[in-house]
Amino acid sequence: xxxxxxxxxxxxxxxxxxxxxxxxxxxxxxxxxxxxxxxxxxxxxxxxxxxxxxxxxxxxxxxxxxxxxxxxxxxxxxxxxxxxxxxxxxxxxxxxxxxxxxxxxxxxxxxxxxxxxxxxxxxxxxxxxxxxxxxxxxxxxxxxxxxxxxxxxxxxxxxxxxxxxxxxxxxxxxxxxxxxxxxxxxxxxxxxxxxxxxxxxxxxxxxxxxxxxxxxxxxxxxxxxxxxxxxxxxxxxxxxxxxxxxxxxxxxxxxxxxxxxxxxxxx
Length: 267
Known about the structure:
- By secondary structure, this protein is of the alpha+beta class.
- It has helices at about 20-25, 30-35, 40-50, 95-110, 125-130, 145-150, 165-180, 185-190, 210-215, 255-265; strands spanning about 10-15, 50-60, 65-75, 80-90, 115, 160-165, 195, 200, 220-225, 235-240, 245-250.
């Protein structure tokens, strides 16, 4: 298949009329809502200091959607932008469209010095595309568990204790998050962040979909997890008041089914 010439492809910001084109690219509804946000969502992002810009690639003449991408930067301006929802129509891959979307975005993002993304484990095509463009791969982050499934184990001894977190605990959570993310993460976000965002991690640089979930779920309460009253905290639990979403942050070296079961019993 002959790659499209530069004049055959138009790359421009996503607008409200592009919803059908984004659906044709295979994006699910929640992704379309992020790429083409409603007015109230845009207002919420602006008030929180988050900046998001979406681009779409269209074939000139036919208007055929070829690809999309979104760039996100949080309130803490370090020159680091995240990109996601990076997709090229299956029939038009390996034609340089994905590269051109990123290049067009890099020219449009103010103050951009570093660019990163998250790729799900096992997505070999995306990993290969990132490597082809010269991205550096960090250590893999993996491991999930459903606390509801573990709650049937019953009360473990000693039981875990959940204590409402105080203001200084957020910095300890930021330190834990930074250690888990690794050395590359510290290079992406130089300097110590002032606060930890439960919606997006260090510097609130998390994915757009995480922000949408935070807007849906409402305020978040933070608790520390203690197994031994005389010992250090084993982690933190973030509980969304409206959506009932529960997130456990813990040192991977201390996280096992026993700890998960104890936390599940308390919840």
